[in-house]
Amino acid sequence: MKRKPAACGRFYAENETALRKQIEKYVHLEGDKKAIAVVVPHAGYDFSGRTAGAVFSEVRIPNTAIILGPNHWISGSDFAIVSEGAWEMPFGEARIASEVAVHLKEVCDFLREDAAVHRSEHSLEVEIPFLQYLNPNVQIVPIAIGSLDETKLEALGRSIAETIEKSEEEVLLVASTDMSHTEQSDATRQATVRRKDMMAIEAILELDAGKLLRVVKEQRVTMCGAAPVASAITAAKLLGARNARLVSYTTSHDVTGDYSYVVGYAGIVID
Predict the structure, then answer these.
(1) What domains does the chain contain, in order, with CATH numbers?
(2) Scanning 54, 63, 183, 225, which has the fewest C-beta atoms within 10 Å of its C-beta?
């Protein structure tokens, strides 16, 4: 089964040559540093590409990446995986790492095979061109999450860690999220929004999934991917992560100068 791209031509260039030039603006080095996980944004490349590229530039991209992203459409399974086939992309097919995906389904009983959830979801897809640019052989395990059930998010993280530990291949965890989304902002309001984003970022840097979810709820941080990041933190800690670094924090306003709608982007490396 092949999935057609949903964000191509909107979030990133649809032509292979144009896409390569687009990514080359943001990826400046081919990093060889092993990372357990990264946190990257998923907006249009013109807005968030600088932050995503800064993160991907620093780390080695192995042949397998588990990508966790939010289900923006809030439909279908709350924990939706695809375990076979390929995703059509401008750089060529991104094949599903079936062995890893199948094992993950076996150890996490609430993961559901649900290709329909992924059909229109952009949060995972927009990470793939960066991964393919740096490693054309990369295979993916896509998981879209539409739940803030802390127990299940922790269980998913534990299942991911167990699966990676049993895998003979190096695996990178990619947690896809944007930060606060703010309508009709201004400099004063945006300063408050940035402070709240930084509270959530600090929880990630402390590798504290529970704190992240509490901050997002209590401070009403409109961070769309708190759930994927929480699961990634749990998995990363079980895999030995001891450090997290904020590589970049930007907003759409930095690009457009427009306060009518502002989205924040954080780029973090966990190792």
Answers:
(1) 2-270 (3.40.830.10)
(2) 183
